[in-house]
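Quick one, T. Sequence first:
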Amino acid sequence: SKEYWAGHARVRRTYGKARDRACFTGCCRPAKQWANLSGDYLDIDDYIPMCVPCHRAFDVHYNHRKTHCLNGHEFSDENTWVNDGKRKCKTCHYVRLRSAKTERTR
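Structure tokens:
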């Protein structure tokens, strides 16, 4: 979503690159990415630096609790695919396909 990318860009401008910090979890690896804690991407105080393995583990745990995708579509049985343990919104997928098809026909 636009909020996701805008929030991450704002955090980098405000706090610098995550790789200049240690992983927040205390795992002794250097951070590589900014991780958002709650899904409020516009709150720059809601980010922490994490290494890639800790960030992935956090996202798997956090994303499992979400009931809707970033665009607000419900993660119901009818509207959800699971691929490599990650849930994917079918509605968003079909919207992207229609948009790409429209762009190709122009």
